[in-house]
Amino acid sequence: xxxxxxxxxxxxxxxxxxxxxxxxxxxxxxxxxxxxxxxxxxxxxxxxxxxxxxxxxxxxxxxxxxxxxxxxxxxxxxxxxxxxxxxxxxxxxxxxxxxxxxxxxxxxxxxxxxxxxxxxxxxxxxxxxxxxxxxxxxxxxxxxxxxxxxxxxxxxxxxxxxxxxxxxxxxxxxxxxxxxxxxxxxxxxxxxxxxxxxxxxxxxxxxxxxxxxxxxxxxxxxxxxxxxxxxxxxxxxxxxxxxxxxxxxxxxxxxxxxxxxxxxxxxxxxxxxxxxxxxxxxxxxxxxxxxxxxxxxxxxxxxxxxxxxxxxxxxxxxxxxxxxxxxxxxxxxxxxxxxxxxxxxxxxxxxxxxxxxxxxxxxxxxxxxxxxxxxxxxxxxxxxxxxxxxxxxxxxxxxxxxxxxxxxxxxxxxxxxxxxxxxxxxxxxxxxxxxxxxxxxxxxx
Length: 445
Fold this sequence. Notes:
Structural class: mainly alpha
Strand content: under 5%
Radius of gyration: 21 Å
Number of domains: 1
CATH superfamily: MFS general substrate transporter like domains
CATH topology: Growth Hormone, Chain: A
């Protein structure tokens, strides 16, 4: 079917990459706290509860950002939503850098979370709406690639700033203004989502953009499918996602989002220093481990981009769930023995996660919801993701303090085992299907 159309892969990849720079912001703020925390604890005297809250405040902001993203993108378009996300992140990065007390830092990090939350909804959703079916998995996975590039580059910067004194953390967080400014400039060049334009009644503009993506025949065919899928009321409200035909799909999306976070891998990213300190690593070695983690994460994400449209979504999710279950049991045992070999099993877990759950969850969330409610439904699913991330990052230092660093990993192994069953029995394969065909796959119409 795709052979009859004249797709422009360079153009499609270009607009997907620019939109995916929102993922870089996520990766930056996700990783920067790991490098900044040792300095922040020294400067502001954080205990384990304050440490958990300072880390989780980003996720709390992300929850608000998700709610705003759905409303803004459905009313004013995906492009304007992305521009607002970049602007919020730019301002909050500078505010964090100039914070003179812990309260201002946490409030600024919460504000940064609003921008990250908006981008985490809008970037993959925009890419899914512009990319043709046969390229969509790889294109949405670009968003995860920019996340891991953001993590890797930030870890390198954190390591290079390790000897800059007590104010090193200010440079670490303040440098977030640079990628957010680049992202804002890039979004100014992006076209609006043709699916949003068609839903908003601007069919001629939508057709022009679709023609640029795949030629006139592709534009005509896709536009007709979009019109059928959004026929009727085009004013989307959050209550629409609770319709009998839609809500089961929303629950699947929320389940995937919760699983991706409560599987536990993100504590390795956010609490690298604490975890490796428990097995005797120095601060310099802790920061070095962050660089290794970022490198493994990036390489394995590239593998995932290569495979997601070949192997399919479901096999990769199942592989990740069962593999992490086993690796966590090994890691917990090694951490309990205070063995430095735990670094290898945790690196293996990072690599497996990067090839499976990390990118594939975002791909599925961006594509499984019906066109009519995609903005609102995606926001709710990603909101569940950030709420789970907040719970995960807030509870880890408390659990580690009271039960030992190793104990949470036994819990995460149990979550992964349950996640395997959820994916096996509730998630359907979406490889190669258009967004309009997806309406039938999950809703059964």
